[in-house]
Amino acid sequence: MDYYTEGIIALVVLLFILLDFISGIVKGAVNADLSSTKMREGLMHKLAFILALLLGWLLEWSMPILGLPDVFGAIYIGVATYIVLTELTSILENLGDINPELKSSKFMSLFQSDNEEGKK
Predict the structure, then answer these.
(1) Exposed / middle / buried, residue 10 (Cβ in 10 Å: 0-12, 13-18, 19+)
(2) What angle do CA 36, 40, 92 make, to 5 degrees?
(3) Distance between CA 86 and CA 1 in Å, rounded?
(4) Residues of the chain whose pLDDT is less than 70?
């Protein structure tokens, strides 16, 4: 993977993190539940995700330099995918709390698995 692709992946992850943060603030404003403590905790969670992504990149980058086999495979992409899916879930929850009509909309059903639909 080249540095351009790695940078694009990092940008995508950062945009999902930013969208989750913004949607969380909007949710707090709508519910009259804005809290600097919650915001600070949320920012620390986001920072931990960014550090995990950096760790994944560093592991992949350093394997050949250290003469170690690439046993981690696509760890950078795996970490990025995990973060994006986690943030997507949070964004969708925030959107449902901001606009309750979205919870039962066709839009939200695009993100449900067949198993989740059966639980209703």
Answers:
(1) middle
(2) 95
(3) 24
(4) 71-73, 113-120
